[in-house]
Structure formats: C-alpha cells, structure tokens
Amino acid sequence: MPHTTAFARNQWYVVAYAHEVGRELLGRTVLGEPLVLYRTEEDGRAVALHDRCVHRRYPLSASGLDGDRIVCGYHGFTYDTTGTCVYVPGQRRVPRTARVASYPVVEQDALVWVWIGDPALADPGGIPRAPHLDSPGWVTVSGMEPIDADYGLLVDNLLDLSHETYLHGGYIGTPEVAETPITTEVDEGAGVVRVSRRMEDAECPPFYAKSTGIKGRITRWQDIEYHAPCLYLLHSRIAPVGVVPEPDGSDPNGFHTEITYAITPSADGHVYDFWMVSRDWATDDAEVTEFLRANNHTVVMQDVDALNLLQRTLGTERTGYQELSINIDTGGLAARRILARLVEEGAKPVEGVR
Ligand code: FES
Ligand SMILES: [Fe+2]
C-alpha cells in the first residue's frame, strides 16, 4: 500500500470524548484493534475491551449490557469488565481460555485515552495534558471526523499551517500565514515538536473577525506543540495591532484560543480526526459558540476532503515517488523522525513478557 506510516504501539491514544462513553456500547478501532467501550454502573469508570467475541467473533459493540457485563448478541457468551467470560450457553463449565483482552483506560481533560500495547508498560503519567478542555473559564466546541487517509498525512497537515492560506482562504487563512517564516524546535527525547509563526501585522481572517469583533489588522501568533503520536495543541493568540501582553505575561486584551487535535490511527489508511476549539473570551455568548462550531467544522471538512483526495491520488502513484520538502516542512519532517523512532521502540519485544 502506498504511503502508510507504521503504527507506534506502547502509546496512549485518544479513543473517544468522555461524553461519548456511556451505557451504550461504543465501537472504535485503534491501531487496527477493534475496541468496545462503555461506562460501568458500579463506579462510572470507562472500560475498553477487545470487540470480538471469542466464540465466533461477533462484534461485542453490536451486543448488549447486563449490568456491567456484556452479553454477546449472537449466542450469549457473557464477559465481565476485565474481559473474562463468566457464562456460556448450554454447559456449566466456562472454557479457561474464554476471555477477551482488556485495555488500560485513563480519562483526563475530557478525553478517554486507551493504551495500545503491553499493559505492563502503561504509565498514565506519560499522557500529555490539555487542561483547557476541562477547566472553568474555558468553552470548547468539538467533533470527530474519520478520514480515509494515512495518519501521517494528518500529522503533516497540522504541522504546516501555511496551507491555511490556500486550503482555508476566507475562513482562517490570510496571505500572511504562508508568507511568514516559521521557527521549529524539536525535543527528540520527549517526542515533542514546536512550530511557531508570529505575524506582527496581519489581516484578520473571518473566523476571528466575526467571533471577536476586531475590525482592523491584528497581531497573530500560532504556537504549535505536537506531542507524538497523538496530541496536537495550537496555542493561538490574536490582538489588534499594537496591543501587546503586559510585562508580567498577562494579556487581558488578547484573545486566546486553544485548538486541540487528537490524531488517532484507526486502521491502515484510516485516521480519526478529533478536533476541539477552546476559548477564554466571550464564553457566555452562545452565538459565538455556534459560529465557531460551524465555521471550524467547515475548515476541518476542507482538510478531510483534501486528505481523502491526496490519499486516493497517492494510491495511483508508482511506488518510490519523490517528495520535495522546503522550510515549511521542518516540523512535519521532525514529526516523521520521532514517529519512526516510536514505531521502532513499540515493536521491540519486552524482556520477560510474551
Ligand atoms: S459469537 Fe458470541 S456467543 Fe457466539
Ligand atoms: Fe487545515
């Protein structure tokens, strides 16, 4: 298959928004592993199990809950929250091997993270934070779009915002985005790429002009922080030209927007694009909320359409085609290097664990 980025195992991935996991069984596929998610009646925690019944592989996500147990919708094999089968029809003895895998789950910052890999290595302390998603004083709009593209194409897309000028003109793009050079910092050890673009005198794109009411030109800062493999933060600050943060760093006249993405590889050539826009301004203005939701959804769909097209196009290329990279690609290339390392580390057999 052309242009597929290998999956990095032994990593945390966003599988759902916290509000999506409840008493209805939810099916998602992460790194090619089908998962079923639900929330227990007992203590309200989220559970993730392998989504295939051990009997004839019926999807458990198409089955039902009996209390905190999943009853397979085909012949009734019944699984507890650990994935252990506790009942089979027609006989008293439950086969010893009747169990499905259960996955470590952490809920944090309104996101449900799942660990794909060796459970013994799962460290919740390693999950990157996005506190604005679940903090007083912040309002968030969000959505999730599945894309039929290699997740590496979405990483590329998000690490280079110069595409805003062309793909998102009339929404978030203005000429200055593509014209302004970036600075890139890479923390190879931590697996973090930072890309900054500081525009000191720029046109205000409709996305911000309509929502903030700013009439003239703006200072626009875009500071990206990509925590490979899954979490992408874009710290956006805009203010009328001439308005600068106070010497102590406070910035009462600037507009701060946190744009968050979770890039979750689903299967080869498929990725979940979780998108969130959080703001600490006009937080009680429902019209602004609705405008940002609809406008950002349109912007996300422009990327979705472009990446679907790009993936289909790459599928018609001969293998071994060449790319040509320039300065704007520095962040994306760094991200590819880090992902390649994480893939390699995740593929190593772990001592003493089968
Ligand atoms: S497939 Fe699940 S019980 Fe038969
Ligand atoms: Fe985009």
In angstroms, what separates the terminal alpha carbons? 29 Å
CATH architecture of the largest domain: Alpha-Beta Complex
Bound molecules: FE2/S2 (inorganic) cluster, fe (ii) ion
Beta strand count:
18
Strand content: 25-35%
What's the pLDDT, averaged over the residues?
96
- Share of residues in helices: 10-25%
Q: State the secondary-structure class.
A: alpha+beta
Uncertain stretches: none
Characterize the main sheet.
7 strands, antiparallel
Q: Can you identify the CATH superfamily of the largest domain?
A: Naphthalene 1,2-dioxygenase Alpha Subunit, Chain A, domain 1
Number of helices: 6
CATH class placement of the largest domain: Alpha Beta
Compressed to H and E, one letter per element, the order equals EEEEEEEEEEEEHHHEEHEEEEHH
Radius of gyration: 22 Å
- The CATH topology of the largest domain turns out to be Naphthalene 1,2-dioxygenase Alpha Subunit, Chain A, domain 1
Quickly count the domains.
2
**Overall geometry:** globular
Sequence of strands across the biggest β-sheet? 12-18-17-16-15-14-13
